UniProtKB/TrEMBL annotation:
CDD domains: HTH_ARSR. It comes from the Bacteria. Residues 12-73 form the HTH asnC-type domain. SUPFAM superfamilies: Dimeric alpha+beta barrel, Winged helix' DNA-binding domain. The lineage of its organism: Bacteria, Bacillati, Actinomycetota, Actinomycetes, Kitasatosporales. Keywords: DNA-binding, Transcription, Transcription regulation. This is DNA-binding Lrp family transcriptional regulator. InterPro entries: ArsR-like_HTH, AsnC-type_HTH_dom, Dimeric_a/b-barrel, Tscrpt_reg_AsnC-like, Tscrpt_reg_AsnC/Lrp_C, WH-like_DNA-bd_sf, WH_DNA-bd_sf. One of its GO terms (molecular function) is DNA binding. It comes from Kitasatospora paracochleata.
Length: 163
């Protein structure tokens, strides 16, 4: 994340948007192919990608892994409500949750629930054990609600038609 908040808020242009779209679709795209896809010189493209990274707009490049392929075929979204909204309880859960087994993502929410956990587990028993052993025993957790995921459908990538 850049130290200069102004640099992060600086507007991005159509070329930056095209670079972000292309990398969101395929982060392994070689610089020459990326440059060709967005219609700029490879050296310009490399500089723009580096600038987007330095500004914190591009935060990293990751492999998208199929949870079922690695033995986690059952996925769920688990809503978590904390007992109290103190900094201590919030920080306690916030620092613990990402390291729990099977947690794929943690979202800090506004609204009736405080956190939303995306988890992947081996089966129904493992899901029950996760909730019972890791969530209901956490001193900050007051309530959980589990929703199974039948299918994950990817949305339009960043800066789609809406800009």
């Amino acid at each position: 994340m850049p130290n200069n908040p102004q640099a992060r808020r600086a507007p991005i242009d159509d070329v930056d948007r095209a670079i972000i779209r292309a990398l969101a679709e395929n982060a392994r795209l070689p610089n020459n192919a990326l440059a060709e896809a967005v219609g700029i010189a490879p050296s310009t493209c490399l500089g723009r990608v580096r600038a987007l990274q330095e500004r914190g707009i591009i935060r990293g490049f990751r492999a998208e892994v199929d949870p079922a392929a690695i033995g986690l075929p059952l996925q769920a979204m688990i809503s978590v409500r904390l007992r109290a909204h103190t900094r201590e309880q919030n920080e306690s859960f916030r620092t613990t949750a990402p390291d729990l087994p099977g947690v794929l993502a943690v979202f800090h929410m506004a609204g009736s629930d405080d956190y939303l956990l995306h988890v992947g587990v081996a089966g129904p028993e493992a899901l029950r054990d996760f909730v019972v052993d890791h969530l209901t025993t956490h001193p900050a957790v007051a309530q959980t609600r589990t929703n199974l995921i039948f299918e994950q459908i990817a949305g339009r990538r960043y800066l789609g038609s809406g800009g």
